[in-house]
Amino acid sequence: PVVQHNPLPPSQIPHRAKSLRTSNQPLPRAAMDASAAGAVAKAKKYVVGRKLGGGPRKKAVARSVKAGLQFPVGRIGRFLKKGRYAQRVGMGAPVYLASVLEYLAAELLELAGNAAKDNKKSRIIPRHLLLAIRNDQELGKLLAGVTIAHGGVLPNINPVLLPKKTAEKEPKSPKKAAKSPKKLRKKSSDICACRVLPNANVSPM
Question: Which biological process, per GO, is one annotated for this protein (predicted)?
Fold first, then answer.
């Protein structure tokens, strides 16, 4: 059998009582201000990274400045994430990598500057970079498979191709001493005297 309920008329239902406001009437100004203030307070509650009722925001400090580095920590971190080298990248990874790269660059520039100074140049060129790398054992091992454009090669000549050095030199023959001009004058005067003497008795040979 179907049970029929006899509902009460709408006027007698408490929760469906007639509201104070009809659908066509706007909210009063005080109610609108209260609702707006509540919405703003609710939005402030969920603001991330800012204190409620705090003063102006502090100036942002770069991570390179915090670490005391010249290489960009933020950019290196972005490249690590973009390259997908790992699923997750820690906060210390870009700082560590930036410090390693800065150390290698400083070491290479110092050696290249010394090479330029040795060649009496004030500007570093690829030739100086190659000389700095190849003359250093650790950098040469690290960059063994790297080719530097316009770097050239290390100066190296096989000892077999060099000219042989003679151990014993031949003694030089002593030069004859030049005759003094006085003796020459005496001889010439004697010859002249022999020619001038008259009636010289010459014994036959």
Answer: heterochromatin organization
